[in-house]
């Protein structure tokens, strides 16, 4: 099997140097990594020529085309790795970390197709008539959400069985002092406490299918529902985790940045901001300022979080010795790095433009918390829209900054 590049923008965008390279076999990760490395070498040559002032419009366009090519090849590589992992899991007959339950799965299919309720289905019955999805369906949905929503897969995720989650914080304001042997010892200050609520909002979807479609034994019901719901849930989650206003949805991490709407919400203050060093672009000095503003004891698990267009801007940066700060991955399953630190692509992050927060740097697991109200629920409705059967799917998710200290933001500003 060979890597097939899609027709359209990417196919037109590949530079001549990349187009002449042999296509890597998706079953051979080493060959795909070699192709990415070769494309990056070509990128460095073209970008160096551009920086030396020898470039014209053709060379500038070539740099942009190679940049886009590297992005696409990295995406293909990651997809190939994910597909191979999925095939391994399928071959083992296991979904997530639990074996399939054929009896429950067959009962769930019967309920979804015809509305039948059997004794086996009582495992997932709610008092209001809704049905918790079976383990196989619920775990598949969650797995795809983790791949599509990088904030979820990098943040701290907890599951709750109540209406909300509350966390208590202290300002650590214990007082102390040095005294002599017989000196008086006045009372010292006592820390204050403050609560912070993380209340889940509700995501819903209501895809439909005709009864004839559901009666057709060739239809894979779980795949159909998953395809309809998981991408939309992941898209909505991704938007909310980055910029959500907290109204029936999570509070986005960018709303806690200094100067943003929720800068004063957390008892420990806002996420710190460093300027990029230029009014409308990124600079090496600004990047260094942001990285080293994070205390060393909090930087052990730090990563960069930015969107694809921003990655293209950071990819062109060099240090004082002329070395590129961005480096492609040379290890299977590992991301590319910036200053030796992993980069996580977050589609909903702002682009590099004046006044935007173009990048985050820090430990997302220690900074942001995702709160899942246990269970994805499915309610079958064959009555409201005949001849269609509606499947009302809900999931309750909350989120917010757990601790602002392990994160820094880069603002495009002089």
From TrEMBL:
Domain Phage capsid-like C-terminal: 129-411
Ranges annotated as spanning the membrane: none
Compartments where found: Virion
Coiled-coil boundaries: none
Pfam families cross-referenced by the UniProt entry: Phage_capsid
Main location class: virion
Domain of life: Bacteria
Alphabetized InterPro entries for the sequence: Phage_capsid, Phage_capsid-like_C
Name of the protein this chain belongs to: HK97 family phage major capsid protein
Organism listed in the record: Neorhizobium alkalisoli
């Amino acid at each position: 099997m060979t890597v097939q590049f899609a027709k359209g923008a990417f196919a037109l965008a590949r530079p001549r140097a990349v187009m002449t390279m042999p296509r890597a076999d998706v079953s051979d990760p080493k060959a795909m990594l070699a192709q990415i490395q070769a494309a990056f070498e070509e990128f460095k040559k073209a970008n160096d020529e551009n920086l030396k002032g020898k470039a014209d419009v053709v060379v500038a366009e070539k740099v942009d085309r190679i940049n886009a090519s590297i992005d696409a090849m990295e995406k293909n590589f990651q997809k190939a790795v994910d597909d191979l992992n999925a095939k391994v899991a399928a071959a083992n007959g296991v979904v997530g970390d639990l074996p399939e339950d054929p009896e429950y799965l067959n009962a769930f299919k019967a309920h979804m197709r015809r509305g039948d309720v059997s004794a086996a289905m009582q495992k997932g019955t709610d008092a209001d008539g809704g049905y918790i999805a079976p383990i196989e369906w619920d775990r598949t949905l969650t797995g795809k959400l983790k791949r599509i929503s990088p904030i979820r897969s990098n943040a701290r995720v907890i599951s709750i069985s109540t209406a909300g989650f509350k966390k208590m914080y202290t300002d650590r304001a214990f007082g102390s002092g040095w005294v002599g042997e017989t000196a008086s010892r006045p009372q010292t200050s006592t820390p204050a406490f403050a609560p912070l609520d993380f209340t889940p909002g509700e995501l819903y979807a209501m895809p439909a299918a005709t009864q004839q479609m559901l009666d057709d034994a060739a239809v894979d019901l779980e795949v159909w529902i998953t395809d309809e719901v998981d991408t939309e849930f992941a898209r909505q989650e991704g938007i909310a985790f980055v910029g959500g206003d907290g109204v029936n949805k999570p509070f986005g991490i960018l709303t806690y940045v200094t100067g943003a709407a929720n800068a004063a919400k957390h008892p420990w203050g806002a996420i710190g901001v460093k300027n990029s060093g230029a009014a409308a672009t990124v600079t090496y000095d600004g990047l260094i300022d942001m990285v080293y503003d994070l205390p060393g004891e909090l930087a052990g698990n730090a990563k960069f979080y930015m969107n694809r267009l921003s990655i293209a801007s950071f990819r062109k940066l060099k240090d004082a010795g002329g070395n590129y700060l961005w480096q492609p991955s040379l290890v299977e399953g590992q991301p590319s790095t910036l200053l030796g630190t992993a980069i996580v692509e977050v589609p909903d992050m702002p682009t590099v433009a004046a006044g935007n927060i173009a990048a985050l740097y820090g430990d997302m697991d220690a900074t942001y918390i995702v709160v899942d109200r246990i269970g994805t629920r499915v309610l079958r409705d064959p009555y409201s829209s005949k001849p269609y059967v509606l499947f009302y799917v809900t999931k309750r998710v909350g989120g917010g900054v757990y601790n602002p200290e392990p994160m820094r933001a880069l603002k495009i500003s002089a």
